[in-house]
């Protein structure tokens, strides 16, 4: 289905170019306020290594008035701040023509530092690089955080790599969210946190 979706995306883009029609202003990758579910999101936390002790999950939260997803994270980092609690969805997108990723969200907890993690070309696991961008979640009220695709940089196990190829947004094959410990960051995070999410879209 992902390969078919990617082919269809490319066909649509080609038709738009031939007809001189502009891309829509936004494209929703996940809209949890409507029909998108959370069943295909996978946990990616530091327990993939023997020293890891963190936990993460994505749950759907709804009643008669609203519907959204909640990213729950419990971060138990090592003494140097190494640790992460995250989730990801393996899905193919061709985002050619779009310049930014936006997420409408709200954070709760002592810490509200998160990051979006993208991968491309089917290189979804180590030893390949991930492309990451950090953001501070808004508190109290929902707000939109805007992440330019040009600001997604290559990382390997939390360390920046300056010699990798740039992110290819025409072949996005994984999108993830993480609460980070901060091993290479000035702020070290630990403990529980939540990120309520209405939607994620490209603009």
What does this entry look like structurally?
With 203 residues, the protein is mainly beta. The protein has one helix and 13 strands. The longest helix is centred in the first third of the chain and has 18 residues, at 2-19. Pfam families: CIA30 (PF08547). GO terms for molecular function: unfolded protein binding. This is NADH:ubiquinone oxidoreductase intermediate-associated protein 30 domain-containing protein.
What is the fold's blueprint, element by element?
Blueprint: H1 2-19, E1 27-31, E2 41-43, E3 55-62, E4 67-75, E5 84-93, E6 100-109, E7 113-120, E8 130-136, E9 143-148, E10 153-156, E11 159-160, E12 172-180, E13 191-202
Antiparallel strand pairs: 1-13, 2-5, 3-4, 4-13, 5-12, 6-9, 6-13, 7-8, 7-12, 8-10, 10-11
What's the N-to-C terminus distance? 24 Å
Q: Can you tell me the CATH topology?
A: Jelly Rolls
Poorly predicted regions: none
Number of E-state strands = 13
Helix content: under 10%
- Average pLDDT over all residues: 91
Q: Any idea what the CATH architecture is?
A: Sandwich
CATH superfamily: Galactose-binding domain-like
The structural class is mainly beta
State the helix count.
1
- The value of Rg in angstroms is 17 Å
CATH class, anyone? Mainly Beta
Order of strands, main sheet, comes to: 2-5-12-7-8-10-11
Anisotropy-based shape: globular
Biggest β-sheet description? 7 strands, antiparallel
SSE string: HEEEEEEEEEEEEE
Count of folded domains: 1
Question: In percent terms, what proportion of residues is strand?
Answer: over 45%
Family: Belongs to the CIA30 family.
Protein name: NADH:ubiquinone oxidoreductase intermediate-associated protein 30 domain-containing protein
Domain NADH:ubiquinone oxidoreductase intermediate-associated protein: 30-197
InterPro entries: Galactose-bd-like_sf (IPR008979), NADH-UbQ_OxRdtase-assoc_prot30 (IPR013857), NDUFAF1 (IPR039131)
């Amino acid at each position: 289905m992902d390969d078919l979706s990617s082919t269809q995306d490319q066909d649509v883009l080609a038709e738009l170019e031939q007809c001189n029609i502009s891309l829509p202003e936004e494209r929703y990758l996940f809209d949890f306020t409507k029909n998108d579910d959370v069943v295909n999101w996978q946990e990616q936390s530091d327990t993939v290594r023997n020293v890891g002790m963190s936990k993460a999950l994505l749950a759907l939260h709804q009643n008669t008035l609203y519907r959204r997803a909640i990213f729950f994270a419990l971060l138990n980092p090592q003494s140097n701040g190494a640790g992460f609690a995250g989730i990801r969805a393996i899905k193919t997108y061709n985002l050619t023509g779009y310049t930014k990723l936006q997420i409408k969200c709200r954070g709760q907890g002592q810490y509200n530092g998160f990051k979006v993690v993208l991968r491309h070309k089917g290189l979804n696991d180590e030893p390949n690089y991930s492309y990451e961008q950090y953001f501070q979640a808004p508190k109290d009220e929902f707000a939109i955080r805007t992440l330019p695709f040009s600001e997604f940089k290559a990382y390997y196990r939390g360390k920046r790599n300056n010699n990798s190829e740039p992110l290819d947004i025409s072949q996005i094959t994984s999108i993830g969210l993480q609460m980070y410990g901060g091993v290479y960051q000035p702020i070290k995070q630990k403990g529980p946190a939540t990120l309520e999410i209405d939607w994620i879209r490209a603009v």
